[in-house]
UniProtKB/TrEMBL annotation:
Name used for this protein in its record: Putative Zn-ribbon-containing protein involved in phosphonate metabolism, PhnA-like protein
InterPro entries according to UniProt: YjdM, YjdM_C, YjdM_N
Domain called Protein YjdM N-terminal: residue spans: 6-32
Domain Protein YjdM C-terminal: 47-116
Gene3D superfamilies: 2.20.25.10, SH3 Domains (2.30.30.40)
Recorded family membership: Belongs to the YjdM family.
Length: 116
């Protein structure tokens, strides 16, 4: 029936085909096995920006929307360029450590920046 195909999220064997996607009824995960097979060798461990570009230490990025700084009244305006970023492993989603002029050291989420 599924030819040994399992859900990549919960490892369930109860998956079914829905058009071009496979669906797991247990965890509601949907995936395309052809696209997933192509990404395995592409080094998917990298941090990507809002446009899907791979980021690395020392890159310059641009903030794509206004971001409120938690615990203060400051705002990082969209279009702010940040130079010399460092990638960090953070469990809260803030995977970029940087210094912003006028604000200081802070962490950003990669989904709110684009590579400059």
């Amino acid at each position: 029936m599924t030819d040994g195909l399992k859900c990549p999220e919960c490892n369930s064997e109860n998956v079914y085909n829905d058009g071009s996607l496979w669906v797991c009824p247990e965890c509601a995960h949907e995936w395309n096995p052809e696209a997933a097979a192509g990404d395995v060798g592409a080094g998917d461990t990298g941090v990507r920006d809002a446009n899907g570009n791979v980021l690395s230490d020392g890159d310059a990025v641009t903030v794509i929307k206004d971001l409120k700084v938690k615990g203060s009244s400051l705002v990082v305006k969209g279009g702010t360029k940040v130079k010399g970023i460092r990638l960090v492993d953070a469990t809260d989603g803030h995977n970029i450590s940087c210094k912003i002029d006028g604000i200081g050291a802070m962490n950003l989420k990669s989904e709110f920046v684009k590579k400059a």
